[in-house]
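Structure request: HVA22-like protein, Oldenlandia corymbosa var. corymbosa.
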Amino acid sequence: MAMLGSNIPSEVGLKLLLCPLGSNVVIRTACCTVGIGLPVYSTFKAIQSREQNEQQKWLIYWAAYGSFSIVEAVTDKFLYWFPFYYHMKFAFLVWLQFPSADGSRQLYVRYLRPFLRKHQARFDQLVGVLQTETAKFANAYKAELQLAKALLSKIFISARDIVHPGQRINGAIEGPTAEEESSESDDEED
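Returned structure:
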């Protein structure tokens, strides 16, 4: 009986990984990798190469992907119930990037650019209001934001100290240097 109990968690995990239709773990991971992971690296490469055509390609991709993400955020609660939704999403994300299809450019030129041009004045006004309100909020809660920043800094420092004890950045506290370690081992040998 103990043997049966010990096999249950591994069987469940194996079923989750091998049966994407039931859990969608594999296909959702693939969507994240194809939709975000690979484009982030490709964008990095485009920026490093300073090739304007490649940079424009990835800017258009991110505009298309961002627009898709906004629509998906609203509709995902309904769409994920459809069979093979994540499989279709994966195919769509591949289509957005596939060089011969140039899906992101098609989506941008046919739908996104005309929509944004039509509503550009409204969006500019909305962005202006959001920037103003954000600045007001930041000024009104400046002390609280500084406290939150200090707390987060202390949390990250504590976490770093747990992971890498005895080492501080900027020379505050450091572990023993190579010379100190070798002199200590020489002293022990004597």
